[in-house]
From TrEMBL:
SUPFAM superfamilies: Nucleotide-diphospho-sugar transferases (SSF53448). InterPro entries: Glyco_trans_2-like, Nucleotide-diphossugar_trans. CDD domains: Beta4Glucosyltransferase (cd02511). This is Glycosyltransferase 2-like domain-containing protein. Residues 8-127 form the Glycosyltransferase 2-like domain. It comes from the Bacteria. Transmembrane segments: none annotated.
Length: 252
């Protein structure tokens, strides 16, 4: 008899050799684990394979493309997406098992409460992100960087947290910002973004700082909150400075 797959767990990873093993251990309750290796130069793929995952090598700068390639490879009735720097807690695992094994469950997708840790410190505000899908209700992912899912049917939310340990140190943060700001700037440039002026740079930086420090409550996180909020403003600055550079090159 062929094996039945109820839940497929997907991890998209790039140079995550330090974390992929721990992430997959937390996903061992799934019927299958798929690691979509986005061009790693370290041992991510090797460690993932030894941890029991099916590894697919598919370098791409388009995150929707990565998620869709992984989706096509899933054999489960349900699909759970987790990043390599995220951890499924025991209580979340139990909730996922409960909703995905209930044959009378009418829900098409579930949002997870993501609890972020910046620079090792808990961030005051949680996120709600769609990550668990009935496969036949997930039409696909759209958007090259800030990708979103197209779902047919009703959605709900699970109560237990997904732990996200991001922005582990400033050196990694700067490297990641340099890489993704280039993609963000190119997308804005290709879309014909209005010409970048000095006031626009200040406005987007102020917006980024306000969002993290005030709206999300970063001021309650002490020095970590201030550093993270200033860094978000810096990330906006790099993106728009690169956009300005592309616009300048075009006009000669």
């Amino acid at each position: 008899m062929s094996r039945k797959f109820n839940l497929s767990a997907v991890v998209i990873a790039r140079n995550e050799a330090r974390r992929i093993g721990g992430c997959l251990r937390r996903l061992s309750f799934a019927d299958e684990m798929i690691v979509l290796d986005n061009g790693s130069a370290d041992r991510t793929a090797v460690i993932a394979g030894k941890s029991g995952a099916r590894v697919i090598l598919h370098p791409s700068g388009d995150f929707s493309d990565l998620r869709n390639v992984a989706l096509a490879a899933c054999r489960g009735n349900w699909v759970l997406y987790v990043d390599a720097d995220e951890e499924v807690t025991d209580s979340l695992r139990d909730e996922i098992i409960k909703v995905t094994t209930d044959s009378s469950n009418p829900i098409a997708a579930y949002a997870l409460k993501r609890r972020n840790y910046y620079l090792g410190h808990l961030w005051p505000k949680e996120e709600s992100i769609l990550r668990l899908f009935r496969k036949d209700a997930l039409a696909g992912w759209y958007g090259p960087v800030h990708e979103s899912a197209k779902v047919t049917g009703s959605t709900s939310q699970l109560n237990s947290p997904l732990i996200h340990r991001t922005h582990r140190n400033l050196s990694d943060m700067v490297q990641k910002t340099n890489r993704w700001s280039e993609i963000e700037a190119e997308l804005r440039f290709a879309a014909g973004h209005p010409r970048v002026s000095w006031w626009r740079i200040f406005r987007v930086m102020a917006t980024g700082f306000w969002d993290y420090f005030v709206r999300q409550g970063g001021y309650r996180a002490g020095a970590t909150g201030l550093i993270e909020s200033i860094y978000q403003a810096f990330s906006y600055f790099i993106t728009y400075a690169k956009l300005w550079e592309k616009q300048q090159a075009k006009t000669g």
